[in-house]
Amino acid sequence: MHPKIIAKGDLVMSSNQSLSPIHTPSSYPSPLSLIEATGTQLATKTDMKILRRGSQAATHDLCTAILAYGAMDNTIMLSMLEGRCFELAPWGEERYKAIVNAYVTNAVIQIINF
User: How many other C-beta atoms lie within 10 A of the C-beta of residue 82?
Assistant: First the structure.
């Protein structure tokens, strides 16, 4: 079954039929909102810049993890399809492997360059 996100924080069915929590960037509070909520005031613009950079780094990290999760899940499904194709037409084994390997190579490049 292909994973389907119903709403942030929901559980979804993964390709191995187990439930996995999905966290979206909007389900995490930003460091800036935490400071505003506690009433703490920052003394300088430098403090705000540091906090903003940290928040951006955390968001970037989370987005990279989401990309990696999707790529891994797609690789599982493509590999399963590769196995089925091999069962139906074993003479295409090299082609099936080439297609899956091309996807994986492209996905890794996209994640690295994100």
Answer: 19
Q: How confident is the model at residue 37 (pLDDT cuts 50, 70, 90)?
A: low
What digits encode the pLDDT tens for the residues 40-83? 555 688 888 888 899 999 999 999 999 999 999 999 999 999 99
What is the CB neighbour count within 10 angstroms for residue 96? Answer: 19
Dihedral in degrees, nearest 10, Cα atoms 40, 41, 44, 46: 50
* Cβ 21 vs Cβ 15: under 8 Å: no
Instruction: Mention every residue, 6+ apart, whose C-beta is less than 8 A from residue 104.
Output: 71, 75
Relative to beta strand 11-13, strand 19-21 is antiparallel
Closest CA to 54 of 24, 30, 26: 30
Contact criterion met (CB below 8 Å) for 70 and 15: no
8 A C-beta contact, residue 40 and residue 56:
no
pTM, entire model:
0.60
